[in-house]
Amino acid sequence: xxxxxxxxxxxxxxxxxxxxxxxxxxxxxxxxxxxxxxxxxxxxxxxxxxxxxxxxxxxxxxxxxxxxxxxxxxxxxxxxxxxxxxxxxxxxxxxxxxxxxxxxxxxxxxxxxxxxxxxxxxxxxxxxxxxxxxxxxxxxxxxxxxxxxxxxxxxxxxxxxxxxxxxxxxxxxxxxxxxxxxxxxxxxxxxxxxxxxxxxxxxxxxxxxxxxxxxxxxxxxxxxxxxxxxxxxxxxxxxxxxxxxxxxxxxxxxxxxxxxxxxxxxxxxxxxxxxxxxxxxxxxxxxxxxxxxxxxxxxxxxxxxxxxxxxxxxxxxxxxxxxxxxxxxxxxxxxxxxxxxxxxxxxxxxxxxxxxxxxxxxxxxxxxxxxxxxxxxxxxxxxxxxxxxxxxxxxxxxxxxxxxxxxxxxxxxxxxxxxxxxxxxxxxxxxxx
Length: 433
Hints:
Elements: H1 7-16, H2 28-55, H3 63-72, E1 95-96, E2 103-104, H4 112-117, E3 150-152, E4 176-178, H5 188-203, H6 207-219, H7 227-240, H8 245-260, H9 270-282, H10 294-312, H11 319-331, H12 338-350, H13 353-359, H14 364-372, H15 378-403, H16 409-432
Antiparallel strand pairs: 1-2, 3-4
């Protein structure tokens, strides 16, 4: 049986490693045994490497397969021979000796002086992180961070200004165009459901049917594709029906139900919806002239704003601060109407007794001075004063529970000033009447 490795090769390797010398040469039997064992080991490694090639769904074995086989056998891998697309022949890794089939590894001599004199490479930029929307509702936004989807033009060749075929210049001459984003469409069943939940909800007078619709909006996970259409519907209905209080109330109920649904993603569409809902709180005029039901609409809109802030304040850390600042500025604006002041004061108080204590109690004397300088009807003036009194009472109870009825003197003085201001306002109103 002829071995794969000749005994002469074994002797040459042994002499190169100084295992065999002239005084103690290896015998032919030892060289044959070593050759047989080496052939066995080589076949074993190659068979193991073929497994990696087969599992990698490749036909050609790479040096990575051999290294993986060596690692499986607890042997040190071979360094300096990477696999890749640029390695297509033995000559790419080894140097062929002249007029022979002998290959050797070419070692390039590096000059340290030239390496030291060469300019330093550019300093790499510092590692940083940023976030952006990869996709919103399954649609990739057209921003610089996302790859643009392009398709080749259907024209077989470009033309010049004279309408003649232009000369092709490789891939650079290929005409490309950006593929437009597809508009999200609804199936017929989804369109019927959306119509039933909007137009049907507005026209229903049966309370049982209305509550059933609101329950579906609060719990149904299949409403997710309809969210962008609900968002547009809410914005358009509030813009077009500021004189119709029943429509405004129904739209607020729909939005409130969607906020309670844990299966839908309303967060993306808050930007256009928030101004519309806040308009229902601080709008100068809501509903027809003389209709007093707008106070209920303002209160319900304020409750919806609080629900929205409570749900998304953890995601948008400045959402509640910005909303409260808007209401606060509207409350102290002398040019705003009493109804706007009422909605602003009510919305801030709905955020809780702590918020009312921190933002409203200190400014009551200042606001009363603004309140007295405005023309107002008797009903809206009475509602504004009753709202302030109720808020002060609730905030004072909060302070008592916070300090176990031992309120600090500074806080007690603050509430005493607010109550004295309200008492003076009541006495002046009674004198005027």
